[in-house]
Amino acid sequence: MVPGENEVGLHRIVVVGGGAAGLQLATKLGEKLGRRRKAHVTLVDRARTHIWKPLLHEVAAGSLDVGHHAVDYLHHAHEHHFRYRIGEMTGLDRGSRTIQLAASLDAEGREVTPVRSIAYDTLVMAVGSTTNDFGTPGVKEHAIALDTQDQAIRFQQRLINAMLRAHTQTGPVRPGQLHVTVIGAGATGTELAAELHRTTRQVASTGLDRIDPAKDLKITLVEAAERILPAVPARLSGEVMTLLSKIGVEVRTNARVTEVRADGVQLADGGFIPSELVVWAAGVKAPPFLHEIGGLETTRTNQLVVTPTLQTTRDPDIFAIGDCAYLVEPGSDTPIPPRAQAAHQQASYLIKQIPNKMAGRALPPFKYRDFGSLVSLGEYSTVGNLMGFIQGKNMFIAGLFARMMYRSLYKMHEQALHGTWKTALDALARALTRRTEPRVKLH
């Protein structure tokens, strides 16, 4: 047991997962309960820093520097009156009300923190999701997912190295050597394809004159469904498709991937896409360790099944929010989608309801509201639809207004974590820094 976390009389709230929802929840509960010593609030995450997941495609493309946007968990916890504990959750003992954490290791494989357990009175699972490769051969060996900032950084470094290699090699650029195939045309894959089209050409223009962007650089977006962005309205999908075509991104729909190889992507119809750089952005599932963990009810994609109050069906002291939670609201026949706005709404709900649970009061049901979708194609354009914006009707938006709305979502996230003044100062600092740094990260 971690010393100093079992003081008598204080309710122990443990949040597992420092993504947008988990970090927001721990921050607000720390300010609300931790500051006043009404509860111990602990955040557990295997990483040391947080970055807003919708920004990962910009990290992967090199258009965003993690160092300017990452939140240091240890410092943030100290500032907001909660504890941060590094470690990957591996087990749950509901009898003793403890979670088990694996040892954390440094880059040399040396142990930093040992295997240990942390006790809770209220546990919130906010561990997000991972991509689902559906067992497709070659994905683990030859493709990179974008679930974490480490993966995004790894792909960006692989991309830069590939371009440097092509520039300095004695022979010509091989077919597919600098082709990037993005598998999965949801929001992440679509936004990444557009951002990569721009940044690869900017990198090539920084002195890599042996690379011909028109001939050597190619971005292909592959989707198994009949259209890209299958979860958003057809009009929005069609508008994005038109924009991608205009900038030169090749889009293949109704294309199911059967294998990822070192030299490209094999399709079910017999087609082959030469590509030595592959991103897998298709499919979503909760982390495998959640499968029936502690005897809790889970789905076939490892999500924790919860009641309308976001409490797990077999233990009212354990909540789940975000992508790892499975909830079908009364009157609906589909679960709440794994989207950032759902996670934010669920975190806001628990900020209010956990104090009610501690006081023994009944909890009202959570109600999800879909505010629409926004898709950013970087500097090319942003499009979206706002749900119920005017008298219950949907409104299609595009261009500058849509881009401002998209950026405001991140500012709202920052404001929830840091407050108005720090968010404004950080935005000013980044604006000044952009004037003195390359537009694309080159290392």
Tell me what you see in this structure:
- The chain is α/β, with parallel strands linked by helices.
- It is built from 11 helices and 27 strands.
- It folds into 3 domains: 11-129 and 286-359, FAD/NAD(P)-binding domain; 144-283, FAD/NAD(P)-binding domain, CATH 3.50.50.60; 372-434, no CATH class.
- Strands 5-2-1-11-23-22 form a 6-stranded mixed β-sheet. Strands 15-14-13-19 form a 4-stranded parallel β-sheet. A 3-stranded antiparallel β-sheet has the order 6-7-10, with no helix packed on it.
- A hairpin with a 2-residue loop joins strand 26 (382-390) and strand 27 (393-398).
- The protein is globular, with a radius of gyration of 23 Å.
- The model has no long low-confidence stretch (mean pLDDT 91).
Helix and strand topology:
Elements: E1 11-16, H1 20-34, E2 39-45, E3 49-50, H2 56-61, E4 71-72, H3 73-79, E5 83-86, E6 89-93, E7 98-101, E8 104-105, E9 111-113, E10 116-119, E11 122-125, E12 130-131, H4 139-142, H5 149-168, E13 179-183, H6 187-204, H7 213-216, E14 218-222, H8 234-247, E15 250-252, E16 257-261, E17 264-267, E18 272-274, E19 277-280, E20 284-285, E21 304-305, E22 311-312, E23 315-320, E24 325-326, H9 340-358, E25 372-376, E26 382-390, E27 393-398, H10 400-418, H11 420-433
Parallel strand pairs: 1-2, 1-11, 2-5, 11-23, 13-14, 13-19, 14-15, 21-24
Antiparallel strand pairs: 3-4, 6-7, 7-10, 8-9, 12-20, 16-17, 17-18, 22-23, 25-26, 26-27
Helix pairs in contact: 1-9, 10-11
Organism: Methylobacterium durans
Domain FAD/NAD(P)-binding: 12-347
Protein name: FAD-dependent oxidoreductase
